[in-house]
Automatic annotation (TrEMBL):
Pfam families: Glyoxalase. Residues 18-134 form the VOC domain. It comes from the Bacteria. PANTHER family: GLYOXALASE-RELATED (PTHR33993), VOC DOMAIN-CONTAINING PROTEIN (PTHR33993:SF2). CDD domains: SgaA_N_like (cd07247). This is VOC family protein.
Length: 135
């Protein structure tokens, strides 16, 4: 996505990425993991403890995140909007959302030729998220 050119902050250093990790809250862990595994065609590694359960989006570099069930992690369709990478064409992911209990709020929409496209959906747990792709 777009943004403004990077400049140095008051300390004279620049931050490359302002997001370092994300967590998508869930109530039904198994259903939520199935939802993301299905729409992205992945197999999320899981760690389940007495306190929480997490399923990790597979990454080799860049920003990572997880689906989490834990005290205080409550799904919501309000608040910050996380844009997930939709790959080469976000419709490849978006077209699977409704198959596993999600809902499309905004279909694939052009931002600009340079910035690409976005779409907004509600996942199987009620979280509002977005997808982004260049094409």
């Amino acid at each position: 996505m777009g943004g403004i050119p990077m400049s140095k902050n008051k300390n004279g250093t620049a931050i490359k990425d302002y997001v370092s990790w994300f967590e998508i809250p869930a109530i039904d862990f198994k259903q939520a993991v199935h939802f993301y595994n299905h729409i992205f065609g992945i197999d999320m590694a899981q760690k389940i403890t007495d306190v929480n359960a997490m399923a990790f989006f597979p990454v080799t570099s860049g920003i990572g995140g997880a689906v989490i069930v834990a005290p205080g992690s409550i799904p919501s369709d309000t608040g910050p909007l996380i844009y997930l990478n939709g790959g080469k064409d976000l419709n490849n992911v978006l077209n699977k959302v409704e198959e596993v209990g999600g809902r499309i709020v905004m279909p694939k929409t052009l931002i600009s030729i340079d910035a690409g496209y976005f779409a907004i959906f509600i996942d199987s747990q009620g979280n509002k998220l977005a997808l982004h792709s260049k094409n």
